[in-house]
Design a protein that fits this description.
The protein is α+β, with helices and mostly antiparallel strands. The chain has one domain: 2-Layer Sandwich (Alpha-Beta Plaits), CATH 3.30.70.240. It starts with a strand and ends in a 9-residue tail after the last strand.
Amino acid sequence: MGYKGLITLDLLNATDENRKKFYECLKKNKWIKIDGLTTAWEVSFEEEIKRSEAIDLLKSDLLEAQKTSKLKLFNYAIQLGKSEIEISNL
């Protein structure tokens, strides 16, 4: 089983257009928006990808989305592991 990435985003001062382009770029890079969570996204990596490579790819995707959307600032948190991401409603 390969690594699973989870990010949460805070797109600071983003317009609707900035947000749309940022999200489109993430989708293009195979990120999946997590339903029911406003700013959470997940992505999966192939088995042979090393942890350091996965982190570099995650950061690269985020920087590409920032550039594409022309967003000046954003904050993010990344979680990376081999376990499935658990999503539920309470």
